[in-house]
Structures are given as structure tokens and as C-alpha cells.
Write a structure and sequence with these properties.
alpha+beta; 410 residues; 5-stranded antiparallel beta sheet; Neuraminidase; globular; 35% strand
């Protein structure tokens, strides 16, 4: 009798364990599916997407144009602590405006002294409003008024280009592709001591030997209290905190168009391969991504430069956004004027695509003054933005766009 009872108990026990394992595996699969950015599934499924789908409100801010504040061609625009920072070309000064567009100051510390930088490779503003300027050999930090704070020196032998700062003692650097064939990322403290290295995978190494620029735009970025980095051949995104605790945040699906060591040799010819076109931008709820899809492209939209006269270039691009709440990836179709971006259904303005995401959960974009004028010309002359457009000259500074994004619902 006891033997039968024990056998029955063991059967029930193992059955329960099997059910728990099956449920755990199912939940893991569902969790991975919800965190998978389905690039492949978006091909051929582009649609016009209104800004109200992701946003709560939008504001256009013309930047003051004066002899001291002329902006030639913005490369980065960062909103931090109600200040707008504009980075132009490598040798341009950093231009600082307030949220009304009023010019505050320029920061130009180019030079070869210990408190200066040779050029601006990249720009970051940390959570405390510290300006962090990356040049070839170091990160130079300044207060918002341009007062020097300190230098963080790179490992000269590692060949890093691109960084993200998490706190005063944690910096993540990315490899300058084609130079460092060992580590794709390296974390250091403020004294340049290496805390952690993330090596290239064998597939990445093989790809880079054939085509050193095939894996561009792997610059790390800060999101809340973590640094986000790309893993594998853009197979996933890892999150790393200052305790070096690592987790897989997102996965990618490229289907049969995935870049591999076998097809990288065809990258310049057939172009039936998906490659990254820009850095990933992440908000509380969304990720924004841009890809070059070569001959796979269905629609060729146009992009605007920020020079005085808008210049257009047809590119085989795909613009996506990923909704963390739903796990759905959506692909944008160019707007009726063939410009890439979200359709401004708040004010019937120009198409909008982000250049950065602020810590305050705002999407930052810009358009040349001429594009802004064209978008609002012939509109209700009593409207705020029509009057604003009429006050601008074609060659005025760009108009910055600040969009309040939706948050995750509890």
C-alpha cells in the first residue's frame, strides 16, 4: 500500500514539475517574442503613421538667428535641463539655446592644452547637465557654461570611438570598426581602468575582416540607469548597469536578409541585406530605428539636410518604431510629400523623425527654416505656427521640434 502511495506521489510530483517547466518555457518564449524587434516582418508592410499614435503634444521652436548663433549643419541636438545643445561639424562650436529658442552661449574650447579638445567626435550631456565632449584620445567634461572639469582618457591601443556615460565613474566605449578586432565595447572608470570588456563574436570578426564598416552605428547609449549596447551581428541589445549586471533587453529578426559572414561580400553589389543606418533611440515606451535595405526597398522617401535650403536625397531606407507595451514593430511610409517621418496630425506640419530622445521622455527633431515655412504657408494665418513661419527667412537657423511622447501604461 505504501509503495503504491509513494509511486502515486512521485508521479504527481514529476507531473507538476513537468507542467511548471513547460509553463516556464512558454512564458520565456512569449517574453522573447514581446521583446523581438521584427525588422523582417515590416518589409512591404509600411503605412502612414500619425504622430498622435505615439505622442501627446508637439512644439516647434525656431532658434534665434544672429551673427553669433548661426548654425550650419546640425549633427546632434540634445535637450537637457531645459537647454538645447547643438553639435555641428567636428570643429564647430557647441551652440546653446533655451527652450524658447533664445541663444544663450557658444562653447568653443578647441585647442591642444589640457583643458581643450582637438575636435568633437561625439557629444553627450549627462544627467547632471555636464557637457561631455569626445575627441580622438579623451572625453573632456565641462559645466554648462563651458568651465573645464576634467579629462577621461581612452585606452590609446584599443581604438575606441563613441561612448556613453552612466555616472561619474562609469564610461562605456565602442570600438572604432576596422581598428580594434578584439572587443566591441569596453567599460572603464574615470581613471581609465578597464572594468569590463565585451569581445566581438567570431561571426562579427569574420564580417569586419571582409567589410570593416558593415557594422556601423554600434555606439552605446544611456537609458535610465543602464547602458545599452548591441550584441552579436545586431542580434540583440544588452543592458549593463554600473554593477556590471547584464541582461538581454531586445532581440532582432532580420529573416533571410540578415547580414552574415557568408553574404557580407555582396553588401556593395546586390544589397539584398539589411544594415543599420543610424543609432538606436529609446524612450520610456518606444525604440526608433532606421535601416538601409538596399534593393529590398519598396518606397524611397526623402531626407532633409539642415542647411538653409532643404536638400533631398532618395535613399532605400526603412524607418521603424517598436512599442515595448504591445511588442509590435511598425514601419513608416513616407508622407504625401515623400518625406520620411511621422505625420504631424496636431498642426499639419512637416514629417518628423527623431535625432535624439531626452531624459524627460521627449523626442527631439528639427527641420530647416525653409521646410517649416513651406509646411505652414497658405495655412490659417491666425494660427501660431503660420505666423511664426511668416516671420522667418529662408536661411534662418533650423526649427527644433520637441514632442512629448506617450508613456507605458500601468
Amino acid at each position: 500500500m505504501n509503495t503504491m502511495m509513494n509511486s502515486k506521489t512521485l508521479f504527481i510530483f514529476f507531473a507538476a514539475i513537468s507542467i511548471l517547466i513547460a509553463c516556464s518555457q512558454k512564458n520565456t518564449l512569449i517574453d522573447k517574442q514581446k521583446k523581438t524587434i521584427d525588422v523582417y516582418g515590416c518589409i512591404g508592410n509600411e503605412r502612414p503613421i500619425s504622430l498622435s499614435e505615439i505622442a501627446e503634444e508637439i512644439e516647434y521652436i525656431p532658434l534665434e538667428t544672429s551673427v553669433n548663433s548661426v548654425i550650419s549643419n546640425p549633427a546632434d541636438i540634445i535637450l537637457s535641463n531645459d537647454l538645447i545643445y547643438i553639435k555641428g561639424r567636428l570643429t564647430d562650436p557647441i551652440m546653446v539655446f533655451d527652450k524658447s529658442g533664445k541663444f544663450i552661449r557658444s562653447i568653443d574650447r578647441k585647442g591642444r592644452s589640457s583643458e581643450e579638445y582637438e575636435s568633437i567626435v561625439s557629444l553627450d550631456i549627462d544627467n547632471n547637465g555636464i557637457i561631455c565632449i569626445e575627441s580622438t584620445q579623451k572625453i573632456t567634461e565641462y559645466k554648462s557654461d563651458g568651465t573645464f572639469i576634467r579629462n577621461i582618457f581612452k585606452n590609446k591601443d584599443a581604438g575606441y570611438r563613441g561612448f556613453a556615460k552612466l555616472n561619474d565613474n562609469f564610461y562605456m566605449f565602442s570600438s572604432a570598426l576596422g581598428i580594434n578586432m578584439i572587443n566591441s565595447y569596453s567599460a572603464t572608470d574615470s581613471e581609465s581602468n578597464v572594468l569590463w570588456n565585451h569581445p566581438f563574436t567570431p561571426d562579427e570578426t569574420d564580417i569586419l575582416k571582409t567589410h570593416p564598416r558593415a557594422e556601423m552605428f554600434k555606439r552605446p547609449y544611456r537609458f535610465k540607469d543602464k547602458i545599452m549596447i548591441a550584441g552579436g551581428v545586431w542580434d540583440y541589445i544588452l543592458s549593463v548597469n554600473d554593477k556590471l549586471e547584464i541582461d538581454t533587453a531586445y532581440f532582432f529578426n532580420y529573416g533571410r536578409f540578415k547580414l552574415t559572414k557568408d553574404n557580407v561580400k555582396d553588401l556593395a553589389s546586390t544589397r539584398n541585406i539589411i544594415t543599420r543606418q543610424s543609432d538606436i533611440l529609446e524612450s520610456n515606451r518606444y525604440l526608433f530605428l532606421k535601416y538601409n535595405i538596399g534593393n529590398i526597398a519598396k518606397n524611397n522617401g526623402t531626407t532633409n539636410s539642415a542647411e538653409g535650403v532643404a536638400k533631398h536625397q532618395n535613399l532605400p531606407l526603412m524607418h521603424l518604431y517598436f512599442d515595448k507595451q504591445t511588442g509590435i514593430t511598425s514601419s513608416l511610409e513616407p508622407d504625401p510629400s515623400k518625406q520620411w517621418g511621422f505625420i504631424d496630425d496636431f498642426h499639419n506640419g512637416p514629417a518628423i523623425w527623431p535625432v535624439s530622445i531626452s531624459d524627460s521622455n521627449h523626442m527631439i527633431a528639427f527641420v530647416p527654416a525653409l521646410t517649416f515655412k513651406e509646411a505652414f504657408s497658405g495655412k490659417d494665418t491666425n494660427s501660431k505656427y503660420a505666423q511664426m513661419a511668416n516671420s522667418l527667412s529662408d536661411n534662418d537657423n533650423p526649427v527644433v521640434i520637441i514632442v512629448k511622447l506617450k508613456n507605458l501604461s500601468l
